[in-house]
# Entry
Amino acid sequence: MKKIFGIITIALFMYACGTDDTTITTDDSGTDNTGNFDRSAMLTNWADNIIVPGYVDFNEKVNTLESATAAFTANASDLTAVRAAWLDAYTTWQKVSMFEIGPAETVNLRLNVNIYPANITTIESNIDNGSYDFGLSSNRAAKGFPALDYLLYGLGADDAAILSVYNGTEGAAYQQYLNDVVADMKELTASVLSEWQGSYRATFIDNDGASATASTDRFVNDYIFYYEKFLRAGKMGIPGGVFSGNVELGNIEALYAGNLSKDLFLVGLDATQDFFNGKAYNTNAQGESLSSYLDELNAIKDGVDLSEIINSQFDVARASVSALGSFESELSQNPPTTFLEAYNEVQRLVPLLKVDMVSAMSISIDFADADGD
Amino acid sequence: MIQQQVKRYLNTQREAAPLAVFRVSFGLLMLSSIIRFWSYGWIEKFYIAPSFHFTFYGFDWVRPFGNYTYLLFAICALSTIMITLGYKYRLGVIVFFLSFTYIELMDKTMYLNHYYFISMLSFLMIFIPAGSYFSIDALQLSRKRTATPIQFVPRWTIDSIKLLLGIVYVYAGLAKLNSDWLVKAMPLKIWLPSKFDIPFIGDLLGQEWVHYAFSWFGVGYDLLIPFFLLWRKSRPFAFIMVIIFHVLTRVLFPIGMFPYVMIVSALIFFDAGFHKRIIYAFAKAVHYPQQLLKTSQRYTSRNPSITKASVIVVVVFFTIQLLLPWRYLAYPGELFWTEEGYRFSWRVMLMEKSGYAQFKIVDGVSGKRFYVDNTDFLTPLQEKQMSFQPDFILEYAHYLRDHFESQGHQEVEVYVESYVALNGRLSTTYIDPNVDLAQIEDSFAHKNWIIPFTDEIKGL
# Structure
């Protein structure tokens, strides 16, 4: 008995010395832990049923966009098809934008695909020069969906004016730029997807421990970061002047197409809620998720039903944003009271996710020493 | 009568070996602690990169020195080597105390009870002749002045280290005598299940009885361990418990060097014979002259009035140590919620507390209002710490006021919408959102702009 005790103590001691900030991984034997939530099952559900299918879908939409663009540049007579393909891909983007981890993080997919507002000066000078390196971060605001928004909707007052640019003296340069922007998106998306379909899935799922570098902890941080920064602030807060005190109509998403920003927001909101509930991509099947994790913890803790509170706040936020007119029309009010009220409902989710959920799951924010005993 | 006893106690001497072992291991641990901190890039990350630092009340003049902060750490590291070798020991330990304390005062985001413990311990060590035995100082003394290095030191100097350790443990134990810890097994009920991936015991950590067992064992350990270490018969058992307990905390929680410091410190409770064996073995390895370790020379003070002053300082020091943790009684409201009187009291591992704070800036003249993106000013760690501690929130609010006034806004008002969750309770509003924090002066007075705690935690 004494011996076993000693061995375990020494083993734990060595383990203690060996783990500092490095990732903790354990062998996943697949057995059900008694009273423990299986993080690996949740990671598997995220990867196989949500993230990878999402990227597959997005990749298809980008491919469709590519062929629509190619068709348009071959015969620049009608914007309808290419615009539809753009919108379709843009809408699908809202469902995968939150997955900025691993391959997407490596290539900075979000920063490369959807930085808005687009920088028109850079776009125009790029077209003028005829040479540009999309790998440069200075060109990030000159490509992606916002650049396409400008190229498909913003080049002229009406469709005829826009088409005349593509058919004018510099038309070839504009056509080339349009193709290049889409090609850049296609390349980035394909690389992210192939990584996920290749080795990254296993890396992601195997890193199923609990530490600041474990997949769950990192992804929850990324997820909340997306909700707070890109969904809440980017799509509503910043245009609504929440952080500056002035309404910033120019910072609205899909500025030139117009009247899309609200729909894109709602798609993003749905996607974040579906992710929270572990809903398989574009279906209603549910797997292990943050929500079921909270339920599991709740069973131990005997506390309030946090997943229900979060879900109902998602619903309230959706209802209040859905009730708005287009963001453009709301923001033309001064002050945009109803818009800001809806924003407040969106905002209310932040402390629920960032404080209550993170605290319940004991997710680490950053690696540093904590207070001990 | 009592006076005589005290006098006799103060004149009692004991073998110096325990102090020497303590000094060497303390020095080595502190050195590795600094190397560890440095190698993680934390000097840059926590002290140089942030544009804003949270300071302690009255210590806002303590600031990092930009890139020269590395020099400060280098000086601190150098002093640990002086302590280890016992080379100009007193100078070394004074430099260590000052530099280490300065480092800890630079940003209270980094406050840890461990660091406070190290500061206090090194302060105490200034008054303890830990560098007079098995040290370069002793070696030089024997060579230069034909004086004999000492073999004995005043007993109280060894006992004072034991007393400090005892205070740390007992107060940490007393702080756990509350309903959250004992009745709800909080916060261990939140923390332990997330450690499911630890070998051997990972599976157990999700079970409720384990949470209670750990909580109750933890209290018992903290309250009793100093006494078990003092009693000769239980000492070996107690030391095994010390090792198990601290190794376990090291496995379960990211608490850095602290467990090792506590394990090594607990050696001070052992008899001189034990320490002498360690030192003899060590001395042999480094060719330290054996005769200097067996001199039977007693400690004599070169200047009795300094010795007297030392005793008085140490007595005052311990009086403060014993009283400071109780200062929270002077404040209304729940201590865990307001944190008024929480720090410097050995309250460790008591709370799973997190918060969210969104600041609203109002230009008092134009009426323009907007919210602040905290990531513009704070590091993730700073934001995390700020969001549930009122003094952080106030200091940050003042910083925001000054920042936006320097940007041309006038009569800036600062409001905060904040939510805090404590030990598994749902988050509730923390700071009164209608109070203009720009107008509030920081002080030790009760912060009446904290919304009172909605639940009750019974106990100390």
Q: What stands out?
A: The radius of gyration of chain A is 23 Å. Chain A has 16 helices and no strands.
